[in-house]
Amino acid sequence: MLHIDGLTKRFGANTAVDAATIEVDRAMMVGIIGASGAGKSTLLRMLNRLTDATGGAAHFDGTEITALEGAAKRRWQSDCAMIFQQFNLVPRMDVVANVLHGTLNRRSTLATLFSLYPEADIHRAIDILERLGIAEHAPKRAEALSGGQQQRVAIARALMQDPRMILADEPIASLDPMNAQIVMDTLRRIHDEDGRMVVCNLHTLDTARRYCDRVIGMRQGRIVFDGTPEQLTTGVARDIYGADASFSESATSTEIREHAPAPVPA
Ligand SMILES: Nc1ncnc2c1ncn2[C@@H]1O[C@H](COP(=O)(O)OP(=O)(O)OP(=O)(O)O)[C@@H](O)[C@H]1O
User: Fold this and answer.
1) What is the CATH number of the domain that holds 57?
2) Atom number, ligand 1, closest to the C-alpha of residue 41
3) Residues 2-56: tens digit of each pLDDT
4) Which residue CA neighbors atom 5 of ligand 1 most closely?
5) Is the CB of 39 under 6 A from ligand 1?
6) Helix ranges restricted to H, 132-226
7) How many domains does the chain fold into?
8) ABC transporter domain location, by residue (predicted)?
């Protein structure tokens, strides 16, 4: 299914991703973890061709995606929808229009210019919003929604493309723990119900353990762990994050906890 072979990206003297090799033979939910700067975003960006690789190759279902150009490259970018930490919605546009944006690459420039959407697409957009539990917000401007709701709109926009793979780059990094859980539940559901492959960059260990079938650990551009959530022990995590014996898992946790009330000023 997805074969990544020696994929490398250099920025000048800095090697952001160093000969990454990953074999995924069936659609699953893959989590990529690692400290800030480990190369997680760069790896995803090479897969959806926002960034060109310096070396190596990636294949999806037999097609060398790192070699695609022109229309074939655009088709692939539509086949692997990307979700970002900052949602990347058009804030002043309503929710439905944001979701319909997911069809832009298969519509004519003229239709896009005049916001002419086929009725079937509008119905589909509403159906997807319903599925994600946010249809009641359809007429609102995106900027009026909470972060968690906005991220679900971004997921709806991705689904509108009917992608073969979803790449999520730190989709919960800007969310509070409650909304983080809703968004991760949504991504997991999409995987379970649609059988779509989901590759998700995550900051936090507990999220990777809880939601992913397979976890890949990156450190300084290299893949230093590739295994099941059960194999991701505290010792392994310490290697991935490059921390010493004082490494504490809670430092990378998004678990929902009761917060102690703030002290009342005297
Ligand atoms: N466009 C760029 N130009 C130069 N260097 C870059 C560029 N993008 C990323 N880098 C560098 O590549 C390395 C990997 O960055 P990347 O953003 O992929 O890491 P990350 O694991 O996703 O980090 P974070 O969790 O902070 O997003 C870093 O050293 C970063 O400074």
Assistant:
1) 3.40.50.300
2) 22
3) 999 999 999 999 999 999 999 999 999 999 999 889 999 999 999 999 999 999 9
4) 11
5) yes
6) 147-160, 177-194, 205-211
7) 1
8) 2-245
- 249 alpha carbon to ligand 1 midpoint, in Å? 23
Q: Is residue 166 part of a domain?
A: yes
| 260 inside domain | no
Q: Please indicate, yes or no, if residue 261 is contained in any of the structural domains.
A: no
pTM for the whole thing? 0.86
- Residue nearest (by alpha carbon) to ligand 1 atom 29: 37
- Residues 31-58: b if buried by 16+ CB within 10 A, e if exposed: bbbbbeebbbbbbbbbbbbebebeebeb
Task: State the residue range of the domain holding 68.
Answer: 2-247
Instruction: State the Cα–Cα distance between residues 78 and 116, nearest whole angstrom.
Output: 20
User: Residue 225 and residue 223: Cα distance in Å, rounded?
Assistant: 6
Distance (Å, rounded) from C-alpha 222 to C-alpha 44? 14
> Is any ligand 1 atom within 6 A of the Cβ of residue 124?
no
Q: Is the CB of 78 under 6 A from ligand 1?
A: no
The span from the CA of 2 to the CA of 25, in Å, is: 7
Residue 254 lies in a domain: no
Q: Tell me which residue has tokens 């997991």.
A: 188
Q: How far is Cα of residue 250 from the mean position of the Cα atoms in its chain?
A: 23
How do beta strands 55-60 and 29-33 pair?
unpaired
